[in-house]
Specification:
Shape: globular
Number of helices: 7
């Protein structure tokens, strides 16, 4: 029987008169990479913002590590939602030190996450001079400072060149192997297939499909068939 780091039970999120998330139930296994797939505007970011406490569900339940989600669980969650929250006039190390100080974490942890994200050679470089890929890696380093059990990454490969994507893919795979569960959202199917253990397909705020990835399956075809079927209704 699987153990889950996150489960959502019939979650809804309403903005004014519109439901961004509708009756959504998903399950993310511990020590796995879960790929959340969907076209732009499908509800991926809204769902991840609820899991990370940025917004609250209108109704339904979110369980973290088998108990109802509370704000205390943020101590065990790291996230990179949209763009990395960086002070561009500061160096990579200084950005990490600011966050570590605010969280009461030893600055020794800064060097540890820089090493993990392959940024040790750039620790004294101002982030205004960073490439987009380096900024993304530093954003993930910030999310790792609190030793999270769950790491949430919203479209982390957007705008990266092929080398940046390959580097990030390798790093993400090491997280699950080291005991960190990962949710990664994307609309780039080929990349998710290479990094994820399980996938969920979301469209118009509803989770239409959830299962383990079959390496031999044509994920693009599966995705298009599911979305076309839903659009036909």
């Amino acid at each position: 029987m699987h153990e889950y780091i996150i489960k959502t039970n019939s979650v809804f999120k309403k903005f004014k008169k519109t439901y961004a998330i509708k009756d959504l139930s998903m399950s993310v296994r511990k020590n796995s990479v879960y790929g959340l797939l969907g076209p732009n505007g499908a509800g991926k970011s809204t769902l991840l913002k609820m899991i990370t406490g940025i917004i609250r569900p209108t109704s339904g339940e979110i369980l973290f590590n088998n108990h109802p989600w509370t704000r205390k669980d943020l101590l065990n969650i790291g996230s990179l939602i949209e763009s990395p929250p960086l002070y561009e006039n500061l160096t990579a190390f200084e950005n990490l030190k600011v966050r570590a100080t605010l969280m009461g974490i030893s600055t020794r942890k800064c060097n540890e996450v820089l090493q993990k994200m392959d940024l040790m050679g750039a620790e004294n470089k101002k982030t205004s001079d960073f490439s987009l890929g380096m900024k993304q890696r530093l954003g993930i380093a910030l999310a790792l400072l609190n030793n999270p059990k769950l790491l949430v990454l919203d479209e982390p490969i957007n705008g990266l060149d092929p080398f940046g994507i390959e580097e990030l893919r390798k790093i993400i795979r090491t997280f699950a192997e080291s005991g960190i569960s990962v949710i990664i959202s994307s609309h780039i199917l080929s990349e998710v297939q290479q990094v994820a253990d399980d996938i969920g397909i979301i469209y118009n705020g509803s989770l239409l499909y959830q299962d383990k990835i079959d390496a031999s399956e044509n994920l693009e075809q599966l995705f298009m068939d599911i979305i076309r079927k839903e659009r036909a209704y």
